[in-house]
Amino acid sequence: MIRLRTARRGLIPSDSLAALKQQPEFFTGGNWMARRSPSPNESERWQRQQARELERQQRATAAAAKAADRAKRDQHTADQKRDTELRTAEVETRARQLQAILTSGLRHTARIDLTSLKRQPSQQPFNPGDLAAVAAQPAWEQFEPPQPGMVSRLLGGQSRYQQQLAHARTAHQQAMQAWQAADADRRRRLDAARSNHDERVRQHLAEVEEHNRHVEQLITSYRARDRKTVESVLGLALNQVPLPDDFPRRAEITFSPQQAQIVVRMQLPGRDAVPTVRGYKYVQTRDEIQPVPRPTKETSELYRSLVAQVSLLTLHNLFEADPQLASIGFNGHVDAINPGTGQREYPCLISLNVERELFAQLVLAQVRPEVCLRHLNALVSPHPYELEPITPILDFDLTKFSFVDGMDAVSTLDSRPDLMKMSPTEFEHLVRQIFEAMGVESWTTEQNYDDGVDAVVVNRSALLGRLSIVQAKRYKDAVGVSHIRELAGAIEEKKAGHGILVTTSWFTPRSWQKAREHGRIELIDGNRLTYLIKEHLGKDVLIGIKRPRTATTGPDGASAATASS
């Protein structure tokens, strides 16, 4: 055995030899030898080293987890703070936007160019595509067989050539026939495609021409100040008022050609349009984003300013859109629920009637909206944020109608007069006077602008009373269901609460049924009319028509009327 004396001779350093001895095995003299068993002290020292290493690793792992948790908390805190800043910035941006509704809106033009509604015909040339490509005609050279050589002729090649030539001619002829058929089909499909294109172009030109014709009619009617056309065009102008996208766009317009005036009933933005917080703050100890409330007084003032700005901007756009308007009546409402009744209501918060001449003197970019409204003698709710309603200066419902001065039709009634001898105008005024005698307000409309309405009745004393429209029919024959449908349409168009149809004759059973199904139509036939005249006007009248015994006198159709005297 070779002894480890090399350390003494300086061949292996002593520290290297000590390290070698720590290995499980070491090589000496070309053999592997087992390391001697460690002593108890060495084993304990080794175990302590392993325990310290394990403890160090555990401390490192815990420190890394703690650092990761701290980084996660820091990131969460940073995210919360950033979210807080973003939400605060949104609230501040919204508040600035609401404060600048008027000034920013003035930068947009409100003029409406009706000629821009016209369409230009599109130029779409015909594209034949693959149908324009003509297939190559079969050439004889593709079918012609090669002529035989001299040797081939001596061996009977000439006969075979003639046979091949006959077959080639037949094949060429068949190919020509197929090509001609295919080309004929191509030409048919090309003609059909061109015809379809020409038809589409014709239809397109016709549609453009028809559309432009309607636009020309619209322009002509607008220049003639047709009531419905002006209302439609100004409705378009209202839709173009530069307001935030979340603001309501509900509005109604009525136009009076005689006064060159419009009355607008418009829905204003609700209270929720104004943010009730100033911003947000992050409370790190509770990990909460808490709102910073906006003072109630500040919220109310911001909403009052918003109502004033929207109203002024709307008036500006309407006057600019229609240079022929002389005045505008404006009623601003808000859609709300009454906290006391739970019922949905439409209270009016602002009302004014302004002349163009006065409005043109305003420098809107420099006014204080609330002060400007006082200058215009506007009636504004004392507490708009509380939705405290006001009574409008102009009644929107009544402005839909053109009224005439009332005449005393009753004074024309002699002793036992015949209503059928009255003129239609006198009969309409008589009907008006009946309702006036019943204690309600009533007006007779102009015949040129009545739209199927002869009179208007308003019962202001009734708790739930609404505007009613009246049609007066001085007829000698039965009033059919078509008249009920006509009145129902007028009720919807005028947005009236009820409709009343008065006639000197009688109603068919289907008319009574239709009125009952509608629910807001009342029918007054000749019998009831004479009773109302005697009851409220003190006149005993007759109706000189022959009523058939089959004519019913009420919605139940139970009693038959006798012939009138």
TrEMBL record:
<dbReference type="InterPro" id="IPR011335">
    <property type="entry name" value="Restrct_endonuc-II-like"/>
</dbReference>
<keyword id="KW-0255">Endonuclease</keyword>
<feature type="compositionally biased region" description="Basic and acidic residues">
    <location>
        <begin position="67"/>
        <end position="91"/>
    </location>
</feature>
<dbReference type="InterPro" id="IPR011856">
    <property type="entry name" value="tRNA_endonuc-like_dom_sf"/>
</dbReference>
<feature type="region of interest" description="Disordered">
    <location>
        <begin position="29"/>
        <end position="91"/>
    </location>
</feature>
<protein>
    <submittedName>
        <fullName>Restriction endonuclease</fullName>
    </submittedName>
</protein>
<dbReference type="Pfam" id="PF04471">
    <property type="entry name" value="Mrr_cat"/>
</dbReference>
<keyword id="KW-0378">Hydrolase</keyword>
<dbReference type="GO" id="GO:0004519">
    <property type="term" value="F:endonuclease activity"/>
</dbReference>
<dbReference type="InterPro" id="IPR052906">
    <property type="entry name" value="Type_IV_Methyl-Rstrct_Enzyme"/>
</dbReference>
<dbReference type="InterPro" id="IPR007560">
    <property type="entry name" value="Restrct_endonuc_IV_Mrr"/>
</dbReference>
<feature type="domain" description="Restriction endonuclease type IV Mrr">
    <location>
        <begin position="420"/>
        <end position="532"/>
    </location>
</feature>
<feature type="compositionally biased region" description="Basic and acidic residues">
    <location>
        <begin position="42"/>
        <end position="58"/>
    </location>
</feature>
<keyword id="KW-0540">Nuclease</keyword>
